[in-house]
Write a structure and sequence with these properties.
single chain, alpha/beta, Rossmann fold, seven-stranded mixed beta sheet, 12 helices, 36% helix, binds S-adenosylmethionine
C-alpha cells in the first residue's frame, strides 16, 4: 500500500469494518477493529482494541481516526483488512514497513443485500466483527470474525439473549457474578455471555456449563483453556439427577435445554438463590404425554396439534406461576421472531420478594383435573413437604 493513510482515508465513506491483526512487537493491542457508529445524527468511528482479553473502545471523527491510525497502527500490524460495502481488501506488511495489497474480494453476506441493510439498521450489542476468538474455534465466526452463514440464526438468538441480559445488568456495577448454564451443548451462548460479562463489562465471573455430552464438554473446556478463561468451565452432568455445584448463584441461563431439563434448572436456580433467571425452554413433552380429558379444556385436547400446543403453553404458564410464588417477578417474552425459531419464548425472572402461596393451589388443581405431571410443580411441592 502506498501509505495506510491514503487507503484508509479512501475507504472511510463506505467502511463496514477495518481489522488490524497479527501485531508486531511494540503494538499496543493484540487486535484492533474499527467500524462506523452513529452518535446522535453523526457518523463516527469506533476503534476497539483488545489487550489482555479486555476490550478498550475509542470514538473518533474521521480526522482523529486517521491520526490514531498513523500514530498507533501503521506498520505495527502484519495484516489489515478493509471491508467496504462492495468488497474487502487485504494488506500485508512488507519488510520495509510499507503494505502490499494481497487480495480483494466481494463480500457475500448471509441473506444478501436485504440482510445487510437490515443488519446495518439493527446494531447488535455484539456486532459482527467483535473480537471473540473462542467463537472461531466453535465454528460460529470465520477467522476474520465474520459470522459463518449457517450459524447466522443461532448468532441472532444468542445476541438477543445477551441484549436481554444487558437490560438487567447494564445498571449494575461490575462485581462478582456466579453463572450457571444448564444444557449448554456446544456453548455458543455460554462463551458469548462469558465474553459479555468478563471481557466487555469487567465482572469477576465464575461460570459453569452443564451438559450430558462428554465430547462437547471436553471440547468446550479445551477452548476455554486456550483463551485463558480460567473461571469458565464445563462439566458432564445429567442435571435431573447428578450432584451439581452446591453454592449460591446469581444468574441461571438455559437456551433450549430439553424438556424437563429446564424444570431442573429453574428448581436449582430457586434453591441456590439466583437473583436472575433467563430461560428459553424447548420440547415441552411432559404434559403432552400425561394430560387427559377432564374439564373445560377438553375441546383443546381433541386434536393432536392443539393438544401439543396447549401442553407447551400450560408447561410455561405453570413454570411462570410457580416462580412467582417462589418470590420472582416473571415476564414471558418473545425472545426472537418466530421466523427465526419457533422455540421463541423466554421466561425472564428476577427475585424480588419472599415466597408466598398464591398460584400454586390453582396449578395443583389443574394438574389433578387433567391428570398431568409437571416437574417444576412436583419439585416445588416435594421441597415444601421436606421443609414442613
Ligand atoms: C437443543 S441443545 C441446546 C444447546 C445450547 N444451549 C444451545 O442453545 O446451543 C440441548 C442440550 O441440552 C442437553 N441436555 C438435555 N437434557 C439434559 C440433562 N438432563 N442434563 C444436562 N444436559 C441436558 C443436551 O445434551 C443438549 O446439548
Amino acid at each position: 500500500m502506498p501509505a495506510l493513510q491514503t487507503e484508509l482515508s479512501a475507504a472511510l465513506p463506505q467502511l463496514v469494518k477495518a481489522v488490524f491483526s497479527q501485531p508486531m512487537e511494540g503494538a499496543e493491542y493484540a487486535r484492533v477493529t474499527i467500524r462506523p457508529v452513529k452518535i446522535g445524527r453523526d457518523t463516527a468511528f469506533q476503534a476497539e482494541g483488545i489487550r489482555d482479553n479486555k476490550a478498550f473502545h475509542f470514538n473518533f471523527d474521521s480526522g482523529a481516526l486517521l491520526r490514531f491510525a498513523a500514530n498507533t497502527l501503521d506498520g505495527r500490524y502484519r495484516q489489515i483488512l478493509l471491508m467496504q460495502s462492495e468488497g474487502a481488501a487485504q494488506y500485508v506488511l512488507r519488510r520495509d514497513g510499507t503494505y502490499k495489497k494481497s487480495g480483494k474480494s466481494s463480500v457475500p453476506r448471509p441473506g444478501g443485500d436485504a440482510a445487510l441493510a437490515h443488519n446495518r439498521e439493527k446494531r447488535y450489542l455484539l456486532a459482527e466483527g467483535e473480537n471473540i476468538p473462542a467463537l472461531v474455534d466453535l465454528g460460529v465466526f470465520t477467522p476474520d470474525m465474520r459470522i459463518v452463514k449457517a450459524k447466522y440464526d443461532k448468532y441472532r438468538q444468542i445476541n438477543r439473549f445477551v441484549e436481554l441480559n444487558d437490560d438487567s445488568f447494564s445498571k449494575l456495577e461490575p462485581g462478582k457474578l456466579t453463572v450457571m448454564d444448564f444444557g449448554c451443548g456446544k456453548s455458543y451462548l455460554t462463551f458469548i455471555l462469558y465474553y459479555y460479562f468478563a471481557v466487555k463489562r469487567g465482572f469477576d465471573v465464575d461460570m459453569i456449563g452443564y451438559d450430558l455430552k462428554a465430547d462437547v464438554v471436553e471440547r468446550c473446556n479445551a477452548v476455554a483453556a486456550k483463551y485463558g478463561y480460567s473461571s469458565l468451565r464445563f462439566e458432564v452432568a445429567d442435571v435431573s439427577r447428578d450432584k451439581l455445584a452446591d453454592r449460591q448463584i446469581d444468574l441461571l441461563v438455559t437456551l433450549h435445554a430439553c424438556d424437563t431439563a429446564t424444570d431442573y434448572a429453574l428448581d436449582y436456580a430457586v434453591r441456590h438463590g439466583a437473583k436472575y433467571i433467563f430461560s428459553v425452554p424447548c420440547c415441552q413433552h411432559e404434559i403432552n404425554s400425561s394430560i387427559r380429558k377432564g374439564g373445560d379444556l377438553d375441546i383443546l385436547l381433541k386434536h393432536g396439534i392443539l393438544k401439543e400446543r396447549l401442553s407447551a403453553l400450560l408447561t410455561d404458564a405453570i413454570r411462570a406461576d410457580v416462580l412467582e410464588d417462589l418470590g420472582y417477578a416473571v415476564d414471558l417474552i418473545e425472545f426472537i421472531d418466530f421466523e427465526h425459531s419457533p422455540k421463541n419464548l423466554m421466561i425472564r425472572a428476577e427475585r424480588r420478594r419472599a415466597p408466598r402461596e398464591k398460584n400454586l393451589p390453582r396449578c395443583r388443581e389443574l394438574a389433578e383435573t387433567y391428570g398431568f405431571t409437571q416437574t417444576l410443580l412436583s419439585l416445588t411441592d416435594s421441597a415444601e413437604t421436606t421443609e414442613s
